[in-house]
C-alpha cells in the first residue's frame, strides 16, 4: 500500500512542488509503519562497547570518589604547584566533613539541603573540600570562572540560585556585589581570609576549626549535584544539571582497566604525581581529571594561574 502511494505521489510532487503536502500525506497514511521502521533502524545502529557493561553504583559522587581513602590517608592527594601547599587524603576528607557541617550549622551558614553553593575559585587544593563539603551537605554546587567580570559572575549565580559563596580575598568585592542583589544570602567563605561576621564573611581555616555540629543528610544520587555553565558560544552561558549518578557513571566508564592503567593489577598500589592545567570550573578539568585522579588515589598538582609563554 505504501509503495503504491509513494509511486503515485512522488511524480505529482515533483510536478507541483508540494513536497510538504506530500510528506504530510505519507505521515498521515503510514505513520505507524514509518515510526516502526525508524525504531528498527535505531536498533540496528546501537554500538556495543568492546569492554562490556559498566556497573554504575547508586552512590553520591563524594562517597564514590573517596571510597577506601583510609588506606591512603597519609598519602598526598592535592597540592598547589605555586605555593606547595598540600593535603593528604586523610586531611582532605576531614576538611570535607568539617566543611559540610559548617555549611549546615546554625552557627555557620545555616544552609539547607538543596540550597546552591557558588564557588569562585582558581585551581587550588581547597577547591576539593569546598566542592565536596557542599555535596556532602546535600547542596547543589555551581562554579564560575574567577576571571569573569563581576556582572558575569552575578548573572550566573543569580540564575543558579546561589545563596552562599566560597572565594578568595581578592574576589570578595564580587561576592559583596552579588550579596547586594539577592534577598536570602547566607554567607561568604573566604579562603585565606578571616572572619568578618558584620559582613557575613567566614575565614575558611577558622570556619573548619570551629566545632560545628550538623547531621549530614542522606543524599539521593539522582538529585542535582553540580551546575556547570556552558561557555556561551551561541549566546549567554547556560546551566547544565548533572546528578551524582551522572558523575559517577562517567567515572565508572573511565575506571575500566583497558581504559585507565591505574586500575590494572600492577598499578593498584603504585601511585603517581599528575600535573593538571585545565580549570576545575570546567567539567573536563573537574570530572575527567580532578575526580579521576582522586578516585584512583593518585596525587594531583594544580597551577592556580596558567600563563602562556610563547617559545617561538
UniProtKB/TrEMBL annotation:
CC terms in the record's Gene Ontology section: peroxisome
Subcellular location: Peroxisome
Chief location of this protein within or outside the cell: other
Any one of the GO BP annotations: fatty-acyl-CoA biosynthetic process
Keywords: Peroxisome
Keyword flag Kinase: no
Alphabetized GO MF terms: long-chain fatty acid-CoA ligase activity
Entry annotated with the keyword Methyltransferase: no
Matches recorded under InterPro entries: AMP-binding_CS (IPR020845), AMP-dep_synth/lig_dom (IPR000873), ANL_N_sf (IPR042099)
Residues of the AMP-dependent synthetase/ligase domain: 70-303
UniProt xrefs under PANTHER family: LONG-CHAIN-FATTY-ACID--COA LIGASE (PTHR24096), LUCIFERIN 4-MONOOXYGENASE (PTHR24096:SF394)
Protein's name in the database: AMP-dependent synthetase/ligase domain-containing protein
